[in-house]
Amino acid sequence: xxxxxxxxxxxxxxxxxxxxxxxxxxxxxxxxxxxxxxxxxxxxxxxxxxxxxxxxxxxxxxxxxxxxxxxxxxxxxxxxxxxxxxxxxxxxxxxxxxxxxxxxxxxxxxxxxxxxxxxxxxxxxxxxxxxxxxxxxxxxxxxxxxxxxxxxxxxxxxxxxxxxxxxxxxxxxxxxxxxxxxxxxxxxxxx
Length: 191
Known about the structure:
Layout: H1 2-13, H2 16-54, H3 59-74, H4 85-110, H5 113-117, H6 119-154, H7 158-165, H8 178-181
Helix pairs in contact: 2-3, 2-4, 2-6, 3-4
Main location: membrane
InterPro entries: LemA-like_dom_sf (IPR023353), MamQ_LemA (IPR007156)
Keywords: Membrane, Transmembrane, Transmembrane helix
């Protein structure tokens, strides 16, 4: 009885319970990121079909968006993705490809004034913009959660508890093309 009490006191004082709380916070934050990506994936077919009616000769762009969405939704998202850097990077890659395809779709939409005036397109575009903002917020929350967790994993004396119970540093959210996006885009109105 005394040994059990001593073990409970030791575990609570060494950060074990904090690891449980922070690990769950990271998982919850990641679930929200995935939730927002799913929301975006659900909006895309409606957006593509609306654009398709106006821009039938933009077939390549529409197919690109459809392929990127299929790749993003076919990726199996499990809690283990957070502990597997390769799987985590692959997930980020397919989501990045989908973001790029959506950007190209919005450029196509700019070519068609009737499409931009269509109420259903404007509504879908607004929902997609709101979803992109939600994705950004969810990513920020995930990054903050991972930072807090990782600081505990690496700080003394809780790092000893982390080693004893197998709590490893979790990957933070990164972008695939960090070097490319660090350079400002060239804007040329002459083309």
